[in-house]
Design a protein that fits this description.
The protein is mostly helical. It has five helices and no strands. It is elongated, with a radius of gyration of 17 Å.
């Protein structure tokens, strides 16, 4: 029973972190790197294209917020949302692989990206495995 409580807590905490990241991107946008900076990050040379791309990034932040909300809900309704959490964990791992498409190891393995990449490629697959294993115990 303690393992399930630990799993529930981990899922809720991860969900809360994902929600904060979603709010950061969704409400902060491209110009200031979300809430990471109080100053402008880019100079805009094509306002129409920038605003369209900023809107897309804000939408992705909203999607990320929704993923976090599902994780939080899953921490309280693990039996009902276990398969959804497994799928979302797999999606996050696959999305982490897309970082590698930049083919810029200096950036990918930098202190700014490497921790996120490690969570995506190692942490979330381990979480999925834990969720699968906990479901077998429930059955």
């Amino acid at each position: 029973m303690n393992k399930i409580k630990l799993l529930n807590s981990v899922v809720v905490i991860l969900g809360a972190v994902i929600i904060l990241l979603g709010l950061n991107v969704g409400l902060g946008g491209i110009k200031t790197l979300g809430w990471q900076s109080t100053r402008d990050f880019v100079s805009i040379t094509d306002a129409a294209t920038f605003h369209a791309q900023d809107s897309h990034i804000r939408f992705i932040g909203g999607v990320w917020f929704g993923v976090g909300a599902v994780f939080v809900a899953g921490g309280f309704a693990l039996r009902n949302l276990r398969s959804t959490l497994i799928i979302l964990s797999a999606m996050i791992a696959i999305a982490g692989l897309f970082r590698l498409s930049a083919m810029d190891t200096e950036v990918i393995f930098s202190a700014a990206i490497a921790p996120s990449l490690a969570f995506e490629l190692v942490g979330f697959p381990l979480l999925a495995w834990w969720l699968v294993a906990s479901g077998k115990r429930d059955a």
